[in-house]
Write a structure and sequence with these properties.
mainly alpha, 16 helices, globular
């Protein structure tokens, strides 16, 4: 009810800003997201529904149980999410849960981990198009892979899960897997684009309401990652951009929740793990920039100073990272213990 009233207020009071934001969101979807994600969303759905990906990832059984305390089916989903992008992990998890290859608790646990931006978004869009150097995109990609794995280890050893009572059996005969994969990807893409458009409209309204441009840029990155990265490029340190990529943005979170309606996902716990993943991504990027400082001279395509990636001082940045980690750690210890009691 409150959301509906707020939506009517925004539509009437800020109609021009909403129109501009909707146009921008549609542009992001048509020019960036769908071209870079849709084909892989179809392929990933096909691989999961046919069982091919599950077979290929069977050798990862021991590693998956060691790191994440999950079966190799979850490892397949996590791997696909790191290759395909944010909505792929949720879409594949939903398929696995629907077909009985993952129990509800395993599906929820997998969904806490399988949240990542794809190489196409990080390397082609952020690295090449926004920052003007592919190396920056690869730094973000490697940092995110590290963050997903470390976050997965944290999830694996703090959240409990149970095996499915009856393991699903593939029945590929008599059904068109390609048609099913296209339909599944189309539904996920439609939901993804809808969320992007809405949050881009919200971002335009915030630009009008909030006087500070820097605050608006940060708020945009928190709400919608594509528009946020576009606005942050060349203005903030690369490691700060890495945090928002690891966090994913509220638009991505809502997309995932809409896909996983039948999975018992705890939203507060999901949100907490996204903060942890963002902090790990930030730290990994920061450490790389400190080890190879010469790389910081190539991360801007908007005539920003060459030292933009190190615009914060070492002491100040270290204090920010440490204080943030201490805060997240204190919250995580309480939330995860409470979640253990509920899940166990």
């Amino acid at each position: 009810m409150i959301g509906a009233v707020a939506g009517i207020f925004l539509a009437l009071g800020y109609s021009e800003e909403c129109r501009s934001g909707i146009e921008k969101g549609i542009g992001f979807c048509l020019e960036i997201l769908i071209p870079s994600l849709f084909f892989f969303m179809v392929i990933s759905a096909f691989l999961v529904q046919s069982g091919v990906c599950e077979i290929l990832c069977r050798p990862l059984e021991r590693l998956s149980r060691l790191l994440f305390k999950l079966p190799h089916q979850s490892a397949a989903v996590i791997l696909l999410s790191m290759i395909g992008g944010y909505p792929v992990g949720a879409s594949c998890t939903a398929i696995m849960a629907r077909e009985g290859r993952l129990s509800p608790s395993q599906a929820a646990k997998t969904a806490y981990i399988a949240v990542a931006a794809g190489p196409g978004f990080l390397v082609n869009y952020i690295g090449t198009a926004l920052l003007g150097n592919v190396h920056a995109g690869y730094i973000l990609l490697v940092s995110q892979i590290v963050a997903v794995i470390v976050t997965g280890i944290i999830v694996g050893h703090t959240v409990k899960s149970e095996a499915p009572a009856h393991y699903g059996v593939h029945k590929t005969a008599g059904r068109n897997l390609l048609v099913g994969a296209v339909e599944n990807a189309s539904r996920a893409a439609a939901g993804m684009c809808g969320m992007v458009v809405i949050f881009c409209a919200l971002s335009e309204v915030l630009d009008t309401v909030i006087p500070s441009a820097q605050v608006c840029d940060i708020a945009s990155a928190i709400t919608e990652i594509t528009n946020g990265c576009h606005r942050l490029s060349g203005k903030t340190p690369l490691f700060l951009t890495a945090f928002f990529i690891g966090f994913g943005g509220l638009s991505v979170h809502c997309q995932i929740f809409s896909i996983l309606t039948d999975v018992p996902l705890k939203k507060a716990l999901f949100f907490l793990f996204r903060i942890i993943e963002g902090m790990i991504c930030l730290c990994a990027t920061y450490i790389y920039l400190m080890v190879t400082p010469t790389a910081t001279t190539v991360f801007s395509s908007v005539n920003a100073a060459p030292s933009a990636a190190r615009s914060a001082t070492l002491a100040g940045s270290a204090a920010l990272v440490i204080s943030s980690l201490l805060f997240v750690g204190s919250v995580a210890s309480k939330s995860v213990v409470a979640s253990d009691k509920r899940i166990g």
